[in-house]
Amino acid sequence: MDRIRRNQRLSAMLQLLSESPNKIFTLSHFCDLFGTAKSTMSEDIDILRDIVQDFDLGEIETMTGAAGGVRYRPTMKKAAAREYITRLAAELSGPERVLPGGFLYNSDILSSPDITRKMGRILATAYYEENPDFVLTMETKGIPVALATAEALGVPLVIARHSSKAYEGSAVNINYVSGSSGQIQTMALARRAVREGGRALIVDDFLKGGGTAEGMVDLMREFNVTVVGMAFVMAADLPDQHRQLEARALMTLSIEKGRGGATAVVKPAEWLLT
């Protein structure tokens, strides 16, 4: 192979690192891949770190020691996150978004890969330091943003279902009270999906009464798993109706009724504004 130039190494390294977020690559791995000395690779990593930081593409981190190396984290600075969520909230606001029964139409948002990828990056940035082993969500609307969050964190996605499936083997089933309807529902998770003693980050699309979120917490308790956080795309702006959950949402929703009909008012969450 011909001698690899620095710009080629930087392009290849960024591609490899971004395809495996949070994965630690040893310096020797890149030295062997590009046929360069460690001192040269260290200089390349310093340059790459500055590029990623200057263009707000995430973070390049280096770890020292025997198990050290370099890893990429697809973060988003709070100012950029606040600006993006503010624009998204404005797009979701208005009377045309309100459905019968006071629901908000947001399927177009939750099915857009570009939008869910950015939301996943924002949520992952808030929970990197909690070191979750996997992301847990409840079928079905929360799956896209939960998957995007899991990808940014570099961990698997685990999906709880309303009923167990034969092709998933034996499962743990629990009953929970839906916060929105007040009805008893069932939640199931395959025994092989989660390892006992792990750490879970719960991600879902909407928080209203908190019943489903509490159900997922109870489900994790059955597996002896610690819930390190709960994150949502949106939460109803009804704090008096929420159970005592330490949850974080990107946006809040309230439905205002007037003479002309109902209007959706979506705002960025307070933690993004501070």
**N/C terminus separation:** 52 Å
Shape, please? globular
Could you name the CATH class of the largest domain?
A: Alpha Beta
- Helical fraction equals 25-40%
* CATH architecture identity of the largest domain: 3-Layer(aba) Sandwich
What count of structural domains? 2
Strand portion, in percent?
25-35%
Strand segment count: 12
Structural class call reads alpha/beta
Overall mean confidence score, pLDDT: 91
Order of helices and strands: HHHEEHEEHHEHEEEEHEEEH
Q: Number of DSSP helices? A: 9
**Could you list the spans in which at least 5 consecutive residues all have pLDDT below 50?**
none
Written account of the structure:
- Helix 1 crosses helix 3.
- Strand 5, helix 7 (143-153) and strand 6 (157-160) form a beta-alpha-beta unit.
- The radius of gyration is 21 Å and the shape is globular.
- The termini are far apart.
- The chain folds into 2 domains: 6-73, Arc Repressor Mutant, subunit A (Orthogonal Bundle), CATH 1.10.10; 78-273, 3-Layer(aba) Sandwich (Rossmann fold).
- The model has no long low-confidence stretch (mean pLDDT 91).
- The protein is built from 9 helices and 12 strands.
- With 274 residues, the chain is an alpha/beta fold.
- The chain has helices at 6-19, 27-34, 38-54, 78-92, 107-110, 113-127, 143-153, 211-222, 270-273, and strands at residues 59-63, 69-73, 98-99, 103-104, 134-138, 157-160, 171-177, 184-190, 199-207, 226-236, 247-258, 261-268.
Please describe the structure with a list of short key phrases separated by commas or semicolons.
single chain; alpha/beta; Rossmann fold; six-stranded mixed β-sheet; two-stranded antiparallel ribbon; 9 helices; 12 strands; 36% helix
